[in-house]
Amino acid sequence: RELGASRAPDAMAIPPQQLAMLLDGELRSLQSKAAPSARQSAERALAKLSSMGAPTLASLRDPAFLAPFVTALSHSRAPEAAVAVALQAIQRQLAMGTIDPAAISSVLGCLRLSAGNANATHRLRVLQSLTLIMTAQSVRLGSSSIAEALSICCKMLDDEDGSVARTAEATLRQLVPSVFDRLARETAVQVDEAPAAGSSAASGGGVASLPSGSAFEAGLALLQDLTLAVRGLSPRWLSAHEGASGAVMAAAGKTGSGTGAMGPSSA
Fold first, then answer.
1. φ, ψ for residue 215 (rounded to 5)?
2. What sections of 97-119 are H helices per DSSP?
3. 166 neighbors 261 (Cβ within 8 angstroms)
4. Can you give the pTM of this predicted structure?
5. 187 burial via Cβ count (<10 Å: 0-12, 13-18, 19+)
C-alpha cells in the first residue's frame, strides 16, 4: 500500500507511559545526530520528561517535546540521520495525538521544507504526515492550515521520483474529501448549537454564523478553486500558496480522463 495512504493508529491504543518511553528514545536519538541547536533543545526536553510524574496525553502535548524535532527540520543542511529521526517522531506524535493543535502551523512549515529533501523516503513521510493532519478529527484546522497542507501536496505532484508523485496523487485524493468532511462536521456542530426556533439565528435557517478561518470557509473556497480550475481558469484561494495554483489546475484538468488526482473514483 502507498505510504501516503496508510491510516493513523488509534491514539488510545498506546498508554501514555509507553508514549513517554518512545519520546525519550526519539529525543536521545536526535541528541546524538542533530545540529547543536537541536541537540540543546533535545537536552531540555529530556530534562523536562525525566522530571515529569506519571505522563498523560495532555502533559505529552507540551510544546517542549515537539520543539527539538521542529528545530532539527528547520536547518536547510540538517544531517540526514537527524531529518529521519525528526520526521518519524513528528509523524508518530501526529498519529498519537500528542501535538498541540496550536503547533500545527509550525509542523506544516517543517513539512514544506522537508518536501524538497533529496531523500525520497523523507518526502513520502511528508505526504503521510499531511494525511494524518488533515484526517485527524480531534484537530481543528483553520483555513490557512488547510490551504498550506493542500499546497504542499499539490507541489509534490510533479516530484521527479515516480513513486513520490503517485503517492502525492493518492494523498490528494484523500485530502480534498477530508476538507469537505470537516465542513460537514462543522456544519453539524453549528446546527446542534443553533439557538431555539424563534431566535434571530434560527429564523435565518437555524444555523449560526460559522467562525472566520474555519473548515467551512476553506471548503467553500476550495470548491470555488476546483470549479475555476476545471474551467481552465486560475484558482484564487490557493494562488497565494507556493506551487499550489498550477498544480491544482493540472490535477483538475485530468478529471475528464478519470485518472487524475481530482478524477472520479472507479466506484
1. -65, -30
2. 104-114
3. no
4. 0.74
5. middle
